[in-house]
Amino acid sequence: xxxxxxxxxxxxxxxxxxxxxxxxxxxxxxxxxxxxxxxxxxxxxxxxxxxxxxxxxxxxxxxxxxxxxxxxxxxxxxxxxxxxxxxxxxxxxxxxxxxxxxxxxxxxxxxxxxxxxxxxxxxxxxxxxxxxxxxxxxxxxxxxxxxxxxxxxxxxxxxxxxxxxxxxxxxxxxxxxxxxxxxxxxxxxxxxxxxxxxxxxxxxxxxxxxxxxxxxxxxxxxxxxxxxxxxxxxxxxxxxxxxxxxxxxxxxxxxxxxxxxxxxxxxxxxxxxxxxxxxxxxxxxxxxxxxxxxxxxxxxxxxxxxxxxxxxxxxxxxxxxxxxxxxxxxxxxxxxxxxxxxxxxxxxxxxxxxxxxxxxxxxxxxxxxxxxxxxxxxxxxxxxxxxxxxxxxxxxxxxxxxxxxxxxxxxxxxxxxxxxxxxxxxxxxxxxxxxxxxxxxxxxxxxxxxxxxxxxxxxxxxxxxxxxxxxxxxxxxxxxxxx
Length: 483
Known about the structure:
Elements: H1 5-13, H2 19-26, E1 29-31, E2 34-36, H3 44-53, E3 60-67, H4 73-81, E4 84-90, E5 94-100, H5 105-109, E6 113-117, H6 127-130, E7 144-150, H7 157-166, E8 170-173, E9 181-187, H8 191-196, E10 202-205, E11 211-212, H9 216-220, H10 223-227, E12 242-247, E13 260-262, H11 270-280, E14 297-302, H12 305-308, H13 310-317, E15 319-324, E16 326-327, H14 340-351, E17 356-360, E18 390-395, E19 419-422, E20 426-429, E21 435-438, H15 441-462, H16 472-482
Parallel strand pairs: 12-14, 12-15, 13-14, 15-17, 17-18, 18-19
Antiparallel strand pairs: 1-2, 3-5, 3-6, 4-5, 7-9, 7-10, 8-9, 11-16, 20-21
Helix pairs in contact: 11-15
C-alpha cells in the first residue's frame, strides 16, 4: 500500500508539537470509516469486560488488537496456536483478529499490547449506511436495503450463511463468495444489528449496475513499432495471447472473425464492437483501422462477467489481460472509493498473478468534486480505484489530457490513472464491415490492453521461463520516455 504523503508533510511542518500528541498520532488507526485514536488501556478489568460483552459466533469474537511494535512471524504463529488469529493489518501497529473463546490477559500481555476492543457497528459500515442514508439504487423493496458484506477468513462460509438464515436475513447472491462477499437484503432498521455480528467484517450499500464509458491510436502509443514487420518493427501481433473484453455485446465484425470466444448473449452493439476492434481488430476490411494486437484471441463477455469468470477463463483459455470500458456510480460522493469490488480485483491479483485487469478511468473530468479543483478526484469508484488494476485516462493525439478524462487522487491518496493514451477521435470497427470514430476513456483503455498483449508476447519470447508480466509497466515507461 502506498503511503499517503499528507501526514508526512504535516509532520515536518508541525515538528515542534508535543511528544504526547506525536505518540497519539503514531498509534492512530486508519479505518475506512475514519481515523481512531485508541488509548493505551490494556488492563485486566478491561479484558474481563470484553470477554463478557463480546459477541460470539461459533465460539469466536472479532476484535481489533493494537501493539506497541510490529510482531514477528513466530509471535503471530504462537498467538494463532493459542486461538488468536491475526487477520488484516491496519495502520498503525494493529490487526483485525478473531479470538476463539476468551482472551487470556497474561498470555496476550506478553506481546506488548496497547489495546484490544470491538468495533462499533457504525465503524464497520460505509458512511452512508452509518448515517441512515439508503441510496435509491440499493432500495429494491420499501423498508429494505440491499447490501454487500465481507467476512473474515477465520469464519467458514457455511457458518456465515447459516447464521444469516437463522436471523432471517435474505441472501440475494453468493456469486462473490469465493472472495468472502455476499449480497444481502435486510430491513433498514436492522442494519446496525447486521454490522454488529462478529462474522461481519464490513457492510456497504449494494453497488449500482455497470454503465458504459463513452488509426492515430496505434501510432501514438507506439504499437506500430511492435507490430511492424520491417525496419525497427518486431512483427509482434499478439499471437498466442488471450485478451478478455468485458463490454456490452457480442462484437460482430469481420476484423475479429476466427479469433473470438463468445460468452455473451449473442447480439451486436456498437460500443463493444468498437472497443474490441481497438484492442484486437485485424484490419481485414481496411488495414488502416488495424487494432493493437491484431492476432490476439478475444474472450467476449458482458461487463463484469469478465471479472466474475476470470478464474475459469485463465484456466480454459490462458487469458492474461482484460479490458473494461465500463464503470459504476458517476457521483462525487463515490468517486475514488475503495469498496468490496475493489477487494475482489485486488484478491484476483494475488490468486492469478499472470492476469492484469485494465479499466477506463471514467469520463467525469467535467465535474467539480469539492473541495478538490475542477476535474480532480473524479476517477470512478470500485474497480477503477483498486490497487492492482491499471486505470487508463484519455488524451488527445498531441499529448494533452482530454477535459472529460477522470483524474485522481482516489480517496486514500493514491494517484490515478496510472497511464494515459489517446482516446479522442479513435477510429475502429463498427457494424460488421464498417468503421467509425469515438472518444472517451472507453477508447483509451483498449489501447493499453492491446499494448499489454504485445508486450506479453515479446517478453514471453525473450524469457519463456520468467513470469511474463514482470517488467511490463517498466517497458511502458521506457517506451514513452524514449520513443
